[in-house]
Amino acid sequence: MSILPNHHHHPAAIGRHYRRRSHRVYAAATTPTKTRPKLEKLTINPTPLITPPKLDDPSLKSTWSHRAWVATGCTTVIASLAASLIGSIDSHIWLEPILSGFVGYLFADLGSGVYHWGIDNYGDASTPVFGSQIDAFQGHHKWPWTIIKRQFANNLHALARVTTYTVLPIDLIWHDQPVAMGFVGVASGCIMFSQQFHAWAHGTKSKLPPLVVALQDGGVLVSRSQHSAHHRPPYNNNYCIVSGVWNRFLDENKVFEALEMVVFFKSGRRPRSWSEPNSDWTESTVESPAMAD
Amino acid sequence: MVSLVKQPLLSLLPSCNATTQSPKQYPFANTPFKSSQSHFHGLKLTFSNPSSSLTPLISKTSVIVSAKVNKGSVPPSFTLKDQDGRNVSLSKFKGKPVVVYFYPADETPGCTKQACAFRDSYEKFKKAGAEVVGISGDDGVSHKAFAKKYRLPYTLLSDEDNKIRKEWGVPSDLFGTLPGRQTYVLDKNGVVQLIYNNQFQPEKHIDETLKSAQV
């Protein structure tokens, strides 16, 4: 699922905003000896630096297509929650659906972190299926402030589309399972709206609704301080962006570092976060409004 | 002195059995990393209660294990190539304490932290009369670049095929997917006085082994 800035439908817009300074290709080469094949970084065809998006850029605005996808996504989420509520009333249960909803909330945060970690560290713009998102993630690291300028449906529509595709069949199959619907409704809702939570985490306290600030300060939504740590070197922590409740556990127990080591020894692929901070990660200082306080 | 052997709990799972297997394209891919069968004989396990809920899970549980090279034993000798292609034997260090640390790979975050920590404390080890030797499965080219980049003043040895690692019984982690991070302190007679294992807190290797080397 897309978590960070959605990929546009206009490749030119994508290129204009998020094209990186250079492409990196990782190649594995076998050696005559039985040593581990080395990954070699190749820098090829460096492209000129593209100027950051303007604050009133049309690509940051919502279109009717974006709004339609957000509507369908919300419909499937609401359908799940409604099915859970109705089923719970019919079955005279309340604790189990609430608990499963809470588990869904926790699952969404963990899932957001794992997905974010994978997309931030592996692949590139040419990767099948995920390429545009990987490029967008890198662009977000370069220009993190664009997310707060993106209109609501523009920000969420990619996740809303994936939610629609995923949750609709689940709704149709399991609509009579209130506990399962509780989990699905809350998890999918949190994942779909994670991009909004993410945008709020980039916001300025004085400009955010007081309720949002309260939820961030209360740990219900990912906090501005926690997420800003992700945008500082070495860019290898605080990957979760729903509530951030998993971040401390995952970071203190070096879970992603362990996964990176396993991936490295299994496949030879190095995560991007192992490299020195470079232009792919480093936030551009050109026309960047203040980050969250 | 009291030996201190700590191992991650997960290193005691299936990897520590069966016969040695040849590595394939990647030394540890598709083949759980295994040490010799005798590693299991006389295995003794004790668990200590975690002292803090915030310490990394993987290194949280202390386990005392009778590894192939134990405290009090003389490890099998070896001759490996260093970062400059020269053959280096363990016997070269007889007559002075030596810290032999096995680490997963060059240019990985934990190993870099560990290498730099040994570098930063190298003078203290020298003052104690001790030498420091790092061993991994990387080749000499990798070691040379790694040592140059981080200005490592000590010897890095290439244990290709991880033969020495297996002979010494260095346990692997995470169900055999990761080469273990284990450090041995040998006294001037070549006898092991300390074995320390900690995969995800590499800097702790320096503190623990320096204390031992200074005794």
TrEMBL record, chain A:
Keywords from the UniProt entry: Membrane, Transmembrane, Transmembrane helix
Region listing for Disordered, in residue ranges: 270-293
Domain of life: Eukaryota
Membrane topology field: Multi-pass membrane protein
One Gene Ontology biological process: fatty acid metabolic process
Family note: Belongs to the fatty acid desaturase CarF family.
Name this polypeptide is given: Kua-ubiquitin conjugating enzyme hybrid, localization
Species per Swiss-Prot/TrEMBL record: Cynara cardunculus var. scolymus
From TrEMBL, chain B:
EC number(s) on file: 1.11.1.24
Taxonomy, superkingdom: Eukaryota
Chief place where the protein resides: plastid
Statement: the UniProt record of this protein carries the keyword Disulfide bond: yes
Any Gene Ontology biological process: cellular response to oxidative stress
Domain Thioredoxin: 69-215
Localization: Plastid, Chloroplast thylakoid lumen
Database matches in InterPro entries: AhpC/TSA (IPR000866), Peroxiredoxin_BCP/PrxQ (IPR050924), Thioredoxin-like_sf (IPR036249), Thioredoxin_domain (IPR013766)
Catalysed transformations (reactions): a hydroperoxide + [thioredoxin]-dithiol = an alcohol + [thioredoxin]-disulfide + H2O
Pfam family membership, one: AhpC-TSA
PANTHER family: AHPC_TSA FAMILY PROTEIN (PTHR42801:SF4), THIOREDOXIN-DEPENDENT PEROXIDE REDUCTASE (PTHR42801)
Family: Belongs to the peroxiredoxin family. BCP/PrxQ subfamily.
Protein's UniProt name: Peroxiredoxin Q, chloroplastic
